[in-house]
Amino acid sequence: MPLDTATTRQILDTLRGLPRPVLESFTKAFRKRFQVPADPTSIAYRICQKRHHDWIETYSVQQQAVA
């Protein structure tokens, strides 16, 4: 199920605000989970479905529990 533009924009804004090491860790985990090749320098265009949103929410909660 595709995400609406506002939700996608909100996710990307949140990700851009992350500290560099956290963003890099997130990017690696997202690439692994959704089998995104290392070639594209950005994964922003890949965050476009509800399953991506749901995974990001779960990932964020897990990372906050660890911190």
Jot down its keywords.
3 helices, 67 residues, mainly alpha
Overview of this protein structure:
It is globular and about 30 Å long. With 67 residues, it is an all-alpha fold. The mean pLDDT is 94. The chain is built from three helices and no strands. It has one domain. Helices cover 66% and strands 0% of the residues.
Outline the low-pLDDT stretches: none
* Mass-distribution shape: globular
Q: Please state roughly what percent of the residues sit in beta strands, choosing from under 5%, 5-15%, 15-25%, 25-35%, 35-45% or over 45%.
A: under 5%
Secondary structure tally: strands:
0
Main β sheet profile? none
What's the SSE blueprint?
Blueprint lengths: L4 H12 L3 H15 L15 H17 L1
Summarize the structure.
This protein is mainly α and 67 residues long.
